[in-house]
Amino acid sequence: MNELRPSSSATSSLDESFVQMSRNLLRSENEVVHELIEAFTPTNKQTGEISKHASVLVSQCRSRKHSVPFVEKFLHRYGLSSDEGVALLSLVEALLRVPDKRTADILTLEKFQEGNWGKHSQRSGSMLVNLATMMMEMTSRFFPSDARQNIDKLDKNLSSVPEAGLRRIMLAVVNFLALAFVSGSTIQRALARAKEPASFDMLGEGARTFAASDRYFDSYMGAIDAIATSQKKNPSLDHSLSVKLTALYPKVHPLNENEAVEVLVSRTEQLCVQAAAANLDVTIDAEESDRFEINLKVVERLLASSKLKDWDGLGVVVQAYAKRALSLVDWLADLATQYRTKLNVRLVKGAYWDTEIKIAQVNGFEAYPVFTRKENTDLCYLACIPRLFKHADRLFPQFATHNAHTIATVCTLAQGQAFEFQRLYGMGELLYEEVAQHFLESPNVRVYSPVGVYEDLVPYLMRRLLENGATSNFVYRIFNEDLSVADVSQNPRAQVLSAREHQHPKIPLPKDIYGEQRSNSTGVDFGNEITRARFREEVEGWLTKNWSMSDSGTVVKNPANNTDEVGFFSSFDVSDIDPLLATLSESVDDWFGLEVADRCERIVKWADAIHEHRSELTALLQREAGKTVEDAVTELREAEDFCRYYAAEARTMLVPKELPSPTGESNHLLLCPRGLFVCISPWNFPASIFVGPIAAALVTGNTVAAKPAPQTSLIALRLTQLAIKSAGIPPSVFAVLPGGDDVGKELVANPRVNGVAFTGSETAARAINRSLAAKDSALTPLIAETGGVNVMIVDSTAQFEHATDDIIHSAFKSAGQRCSALRLLCVQDDIADTLLEMICGAIDTLKLGDPTDWSVDVGPVIDPEAKKGLEDATAEYEVLHAHQSEIAADGHFVRPTIVNVKDITKFNTEHFGPILGFHRYQRGDVAKVIDQANALGYGLTFGVHSRLNSTIERFTTNMKVGNMYVNRTMTGAVVGTQPFGGEGLSGTGPKAGGPLYLTRFLVERVVTRNETATGGNLTLMKLS
Predict the structure, then answer these.
(1) 802, HSE (Cβ side, Cα atoms, 13 Å)
(2) What is the tens place of the pLDDT at every residue in 608-663?
(3) What is the per-residue pLDDT for 132?
(4) pLDDT of residue 986
(5) Which residues are catalytic?
(6) According to the model, what pLDDT value does residue 461 have?
(7) Model pTM?
(8) DSSP string for 866-894
């Protein structure tokens, strides 16, 4: 094995070029595109030849458009440009997996009613497409439009339909698509149908459980054996295999990189050894950007394996939409050179573009890892072509494309060098027939062929349709008669050169998604080698820090590690509370007397200081609060966002407003501070919920006495230091009073207090409410946010993998210690067993331990009392499943657990930790579930996983909760986007991070002035 290791200088060079790829992801799109323009400079002669070849290919295809396969005609008629196309895609995604027939019928009907099918009637050149359109149009007319959002009416109307009529119609369409896109339900059937060299892709990706990853591994091993056997009978078909690493291990994530690489190397090495023995090539497929560096490290380890030293059949996918694509080609060439082998390189455009854009915005990345304009991706693809040919001695190019101009470019620049084209199964057949006729030396074409049962088709089919069904894509454009041949075959480089700005104007950078009002907080891209390594080094520098906030006092220990003393603080002396409150109360007028812009600027500076000290605060949150690194970063971002959002709101809200008035009179509305606010924050969000109410109170001109939870006082004290020292907020207007219940009780009972903002338990909120009501002073408003028995509904149309991800995240991230966390999961009985099995398997993939280990998924609960309470609560139920793995830490850990809940009404207590109730409901009991969930009295968060609009509408209309989430997680509300807060037993409102929140910190005053009291009405007199 050592003989295959590169020299230290070579390793250094590889490492540097690897880091350069990460740098490219952080560069501006303009900068990268300018580099691509320089990299792709064909001669005038070559440009002319490319244009000529492309035009001929397009013209020839148009002359034979009657020969286009059904699926391409279907895509052209029902692309993503139409409501009908989107409706069909949604239906295909769900219908294959719906087990109960009545729900499948309702789903089908809903999708029929979402479009104007008549406009597509007899518009396609395909009789099959026209027949499918006619069936859908007739069915949509059969039902009244007012049944669209009413599940009871749908049920009633469906009862008159011939049995399974709707289902048969739609399944016929789905089967057409499936047959067109999938080469066989088994590898044996796919091999029997294969007429050209194929790269087989075993459907079923993104394993959520270890059992699923074992099944996928066995599937790949079986495929290798089957292909090897087939090729002995027909050696002319040089088949290969494509492998997705997320199918082989359920935790392919950059924070778990070391373990992920080890497991994946072990598994892929076994596959490759077997493939090498069969003389079969294996390509590692590309997936989302944050996992890609893991893929590359696995590839490097495979090349270093002594078991594979004589095999050159390994392949890698390069996605042209990624800004690192060109540098990746160079790195792969260096890698192949150092290990004295040859790599297959499949160049693709990329199929996760929309996902990458959203991920970057949600996480506040510095830049997008992908291009925002399609023509930039096209140019990048073109620039990679000559670069691949440059390294032809070490890289074998495989160009995956359905674009005539791209094909013409490859054939023109090849100059006799070996390569192959690749196309998707069921697509591009006509185009490549013309390529074979047009070019004298016909290049080899390999077919990317998915294999699997229809139930596993969903994710693949959706990606293919999204990738090829958009109106901007060549598959759609080639037969669009509204576009000339020149338009369809145009050179992307010319388009790019004509653009002033290369970033799409309608896709702002993540920091700018909120416009001029405020900046989005910047996150950490853990999938990027540079940002991850830099942030890890910064955080680790604080892991031995002792935060001593006083000379003596209470020792704070790490809840995940009882031997780790984080620091200590002194509780505030109760006897000193009144004098301090007197000072704060007396400072209100001076603080409010500052310009609004001044106060806003200081609050924004507080946000800047939090960001500047993010690595220190992350380490403190890890050690004092037991936060994972992702949770810590997210919470600190929320703290920043609160500051910037409330400052932006105050700038407009606090401007005096002139009200409509009769002539001769003026009326102005003034918003003024209430005075002194007490802000009491919890231990589960000791940074964001500490900062948020304080920032709101201060920016509106109030002064603040803040009491953090005693378990997490160090982070509160450190944040206070930043507010005073870095943001210039005077200690006379903001003070923190750490301590226990005695401090809190004294604060809220003090007559100087003009308002209380509290987040915590329902019991504590009731006690505060009683204390405020008992005061003889002015009535004191209370902003209370408590918790809830938060419910999620999953019906039989839900996508299992998606639902499982959201359930695990909602119930067990942050060790279930979020007020918004999922507490009660209600699953339609038809799918309950299958979904429960997947959830239980996903639970067992979670790693529990000290969160200073970045690979940990679930940290500790906050203290011994919390642990005991949760364990006692678990004992009251039938346990369906509990996390099984070892816990490599000595702290307050509670295993994620699912308990059986037969009666919703008896699951009426919030268990603040990783305990999830599981309830089965019958399809006809939806109304009962709604009534029982509402009867619990809580109203904080609610989730629903369904593809039925009628179901979604029913729940979102009738559930009495503050935040409702459809087909996504129930936690992680974003400031300004998802204002957060509950009703009933879950809080008073207004919602934190919403447009009404600041109003609770203000009083309204109206000044009415009679303008004619000292003379006539000049306004009227001046009228001409």
Answers:
(1) 17
(2) 999 999 999 999 999 999 999 999 999 999 999 999 999 999 999 999 999 999 98
(3) 58
(4) 96
(5) 785, 819
(6) 59
(7) 0.93
(8) HHHHHHHHHTTSEEEEE--S---S-S---
Return the beta strands (E) in 386-535 as ranges.
395-400, 420-424, 444-451
Instruction: Give the pairing of strands 915-921 and 1002-1010.
Output: unpaired
**Cα 481 to Cα 63, 66, 76, 435, 484, distances in angstroms:** 12, 14, 11, 21, 7
Contacts of 932 (CB under 8 A, 6+ apart): 904, 905
H or E segment and range at residue 568 = strand 561-569
Question: Which region holds residue 816: left if phi is over 0, alpha if psi is between -120 and 50, else beta?
Answer: left
**Rg (the chain; Cα; Å):** 32
Sheet holding 755-759, edge to edge: 734-736, 703-707, 676-680, 755-759, 782-785
**Coil/strand/helix, residue 565:** strand
Residues 904-962 pLDDT 10s: 999 999 999 999 999 999 999 999 999 999 999 999 999 999 988 889 999 999 999 99
CA pseudo-torsion sign 367, 373, 374, 379: negative
Residues 6+ apart with CB under 8 A from 84: 78, 114, 115, 116, 117, 120, 136
- Nearest to residue 373, comparing CAs of 395, 351, 353? 353
Q: How far apart are CA 1012 and CA 33, in angstroms?
A: 66
Cβ neighbours of 709 (radius 10 Å): 24
Residue 649 exposure: Cα atoms within 13 Å on the Cβ side: 25
Using 50, 70 and 90 to split pLDDT, how confident is the model at 10? very low
Residue holding tokens 């580099």?
A: 35
Cα separation, 172 vs 178, in Å, equals: 10
> Is residue 588 a contact partner of residue 701, using CB atoms and an 8 Å limit?
yes
- The bridge status of strand 963-966 relative to strand 314-319 is unpaired
Cis peptide leading into 990, omega within 30 of 0? yes
pLDDT band at 544 (very low <50, low <70, confident <90, very high): very high
Contact 177, 461 (CB under 8 A): yes
